[in-house]
């Protein structure tokens, strides 16, 4: 009897086929955890009031993007953000009912988590015990949702919805949802090099051009009220790729002198490295994958495209952790890294993101993990199915 129980536990923890069962149990735990967080942990105001101030200007009839401002500065997100948070503005009584907003973000997290479980199950490449780390060892991620109410998880939710359609090869619907995610926050564009490659391989140049056109048209429709009022202002404010970040908030480059961190030459070097790594992984990994692409390959291409972008980012802030946290197991388990090493890396990354304020040691360790991860992703994958015990 005991032996059967042990075998059952081992199977549920280590067999990818058991992902949905473990995921269901973790979702129940997550429901309780989010309630405890909302009720027992003090809410910290960072951007929510600023978000509400920004959309209130839109509600009051201001369509000039340069005039939409909040307590933390001007509005710097595309139009989709305005529409989503306008809805939250009304639901939460003009943004005043913070606790209701927290519960809404807790519900959003449960949907998000469920999507992650379904997507990972589709790949049959990640052991279910990883979900226990997602549930019980991710303080920062829970904080980003239920205690900070950032727009990053909203954008990432729509990104994962798009990925669900992509791995099921529903390209048009996926591209529409992907474009809407971009309209909430621009970081979603880090997945676009991988998506472009996937569409070219699966659908060819002509159809890919059509999908890109659809994405562009959706951006045009969403931004139309603001484009008609002040087109230059809207484009400059919502798609500002040259925006400067404050050194005091950086998680990944605390070890640099501030003048180098702010240097445009440094930014250009990072961009060049980013482009070079994308070209390298395209030739070393993506092009060698079996055609047609399966769900595992699609996921790896999208996630590695994003990971490289994050590794080469000019700066990372604490809420950016949600950009790649749930992608790390699928990425690292696809490499030749031994299981103890990849688990150590994930633990170190978690530790670095939970170090506040960031230190020279924490940011150095974080970037070291990024470098090791990128190098591992560039190397040939394991030819055999990884055995985990």
> Which consecutive residue ranges, at least 5 long each, have pLDDT under 50?
none
Provide the helix percentage: 55-70%
Number of helical segments with 4 or more residues: 17
Structural class: mainly alpha
Number of strand elements? 2
- The largest sheet has its strands arranged as 1-2
Over all CA atoms, what is the radius of gyration?
21 Å
Structure description:
With 389 residues, the chain is an all-alpha fold. Helices cover 66% and strands 1% of the residues. It has 17 helices and 2 strands. The chain has helices at residues 2-14, 19-40, 48-59, 79-91, 98-123, 130-136, 139-147, 152-167, 171-182, 192-229, 231-238, 258-261, 264-284, 295-311, 328-332, 339-353, 360-378, and strands at 69-70, 73-74. Strands 1-2 form a two-stranded antiparallel sheet. Helix 9 (171-182) packs across helix 10 and helix 16 packs antiparallel against helix 17. The longest helix has 38 residues, at 192-229. The mean pLDDT is 94.
Write the layout of secondary structure elements.
Elements: H1 2-14, H2 19-40, H3 48-59, E1 69-70, E2 73-74, H4 79-91, H5 98-123, H6 130-136, H7 139-147, H8 152-167, H9 171-182, H10 192-229, H11 231-238, H12 258-261, H13 264-284, H14 295-311, H15 328-332, H16 339-353, H17 360-378
Antiparallel strand pairs: 1-2
Helix pairs in contact: 2-5, 3-4, 5-7, 5-8, 8-9, 9-10, 10-11, 10-14, 13-14, 14-17, 16-17
